Amino acid sequence: MKFIVKLFPEITIKSRPVRKRFTQRLQSNLQIILQRIEPKIKVRSLWDRIDVDCPPHADVHYEAIVEALACTPGISHCLEVQEYELTDFDDILERVISAHGERLQGKRFVVRAKRAGKHDFNSQDLERYIGGGLLRRTGAVKVDLHTPEITVNIEVKDQKVFLVERRIDGLGGYPQGTQEGVVSLISGGFDSIVASYLTMKRGTKTHFVFFNMGGAAHEGGVQQVSYFLWKKFGSAAKVKFVSVPFEGVVAEILQHVHHSHMGVVLKRMMLRAAERVAKRVKAEALITGESIAQVSSQTLPNLGVIDKVTDSLVLRPLITYDKQDIIDIATQIGAYEFAASMPEYCGVISDRPTVRAQLARVEEEESNFDFDVLEQALRQAEVSSITDLAAVAAQEQIHASKSLSENDVVIDVRHPDDQVKAPLNLPGASILTIPFFKINDAYIDLPQDKQYLLYCPKGVMSNLHAMHLRDQGFDNVGVFRPA
Predict the structure, then answer these.
(1) Residue 414 has what pLDDT?
(2) Could you give the CA distance from residue 260 to residue 251 in angstroms, rounded to a whole number?
(3) CA–CA separation, 479 and 477 (whole Å)
(4) Cβ pair 53, 41 in contact under 8 A
(5) Using only C-alpha atoms, what is the Rg of the chain?
(6) Helices vs strands, H then E, count in the chain
């Protein structure tokens, strides 16, 4: 099993030294990631591509290898190929028939050839010969240059022939570690998750800082999604997860800041703390998930005032994104359920919040704030290696029940649209439909002499909300995952 990795086009137009550095970094990243899957995988860096050679027994890891190639930043696409020595056109034809003959039956097809090196033929010569041979010797209907049902791809590189079996689209972007480190302010919602992903895709070493405003379930959920992002898109880099207890900061804001300025002041406190975290992990910038005017604190005047609190560079990858675009990206990268199920802690909600904050007024409000509270929060911050979160995430999982007893009630916490499209069918069982965004408020009104098991297809949403309810003192809640 062999894969040819094609570089993201923006890498190929860099100067020769930069291109060489980026390619070597990508080769190193792939070697780290793929050799975790199978230690005997070989990764070789060439000028225009990277070759990944897998031993025969690596077939059992095929899906994991493909996913790693599809999710590693810096790759345009990968070609799964069979490699042969170049002899003559007849030999190539025989190999193509062996590889593709059956699936050409009754199909329109085209042959596409790419050639590099010194040969006495060109790509069109090879395409015509192989296309004619396939038309004569298989059950193909016709050669169709414009709307083929099947494309047969062949690459000739010097004295090697590569028959393409599958094309795997890559992530694009730059290899991890080619850009300086950043700290992402992650809350676990759609915005901060997608902003973190976009910076990782662009080659930055992305650390995570979480401001805990109450709730072990929230922190556990954010740890899970941070580990998910790192594991899937950035596991070649060694990064940190920093949790800063912010309950005291929120309490201080509620007591001493006018309600109209609470949101702006909270964001400034977060940037102050994040700047200190960035210095600790040697990061060059702060990342937030803010988008223009999405909420009151994200108007341009308010963002300007917020940024004045720090000398650090603040990057906002989503600044012009619509909310649905952000949700679509979260869905595409597999993070939708994490974000949708994340418990919310809205400890600071301004009444008639200002949308045009003035720096002088904000600083006046902050003069009443006891900054020793912020210092104490930073002293109590917990710094973890991202790899440690694998164990933490596993510990946070509630053991799921696969069967039901007489006293059990299943609560379907899926979105109402999903509940309507695919009703939960459990003959004889007691079932309630309470969407995840209502479960925390609705649970207190349920009869507490029952055992409630939360259900969602993947178990992420149900587990997070079950943990949160247990954190609130309810011990009659669990998770249901039917066998």
Answers:
(1) 82
(2) 16
(3) 7
(4) yes
(5) 27
(6) 18, 19
- Cα separation, 232 vs 234, whole angstroms: 6
Q: Find the Cα–Cα–Cα–Cα dihedral 423, 428, 429, 433, rounded to 10°.
A: 30
Residue 351: predicted pLDDT: 66
Which residue type does 311 have? D
State the span(s) of the chain assigned CATH 3.40.250.10. Answer: 400-480
Nearest to 11 by CA among 91, 75, 58: 75
Quote the pLDDT of residue 345.
54
Residue recorded with tokens 């904050």: 357
Both tokens of residue 143? 């050669």
For 81-91, give one letter per residue: b (16+ CB within 10 A) or e. Answer: beeeeeeeeee
Query: Residues spanned by CATH 3.30.2130.30 within the chain?
Result: 2-172
Question: How do strand 285-287 and strand 400-401 relate by DSSP bridges?
Answer: unpaired
Residue 130 CA: distances (Å) to CA of 89, 94, 101, 157, 271: 7, 9, 12, 17, 62
What distances in angstroms separate CA 23 from CA 18, 116, 154, one per listed residue?
8, 20, 24
CATH fold, domain 2-172, is: VC0802-like (3.30.2130)
Q: Which amino acid is at 310?
A: T
- Out of 3.40.250.10, 3.90.1030.10, 3.40.140.10, 3.50.50.60, select the CATH number for domain 400-480: 3.40.250.10
For residue 444, what are the CA distances in angstroms to 56, 391, 408?
Answer: 57, 31, 17
**CA separation for the pair 212, 377 (Å, rounded):** 10
- Residue 469: the pLDDT is 84
Residue pair 478/409 in contact by the 8 Å Cβ criterion: no
Do strands 2-7 and 49-53 pair parallel, antiparallel, or not at all (unpaired)? antiparallel
Closest to 114 (Cα-Cα) out of 128, 129, 124: 124
Write the CATH number of the domain with boundaries 182-396: 3.40.50.620
DSSP 458: S
Q: Would you state the pLDDT for residue 73?
A: 96
> Which pair of structure tokens corresponds to residue 207?
């650390």
Q: Please list the rounded mean pLDDT of every run of 10 residues in the chain (483 residues).
A: 93 94 95 94 90 90 94 94 92 92 93 92 94 92 93 92 91 94 94 96 96 78 91 93 90 87 93 96 95 88 94 96 95 89 60 87 93 95 90 66 89 83 87 83 89 83 79 87 78
Residues of the chain with CATH 3.40.50.620: 182-396
Q: Which of 54, 71, 78, 456 is catalytic?
A: 456
Specify which residues 83 forms β-bridges with: 162
User: What is the distance between the alpha carbons of residues 345 and 350, in angstroms, rounded to a whole number?
Assistant: 14
Active site residue 456: yes
pLDDT (0 to 100) of residue 215: 65
pLDDT at 297: 82
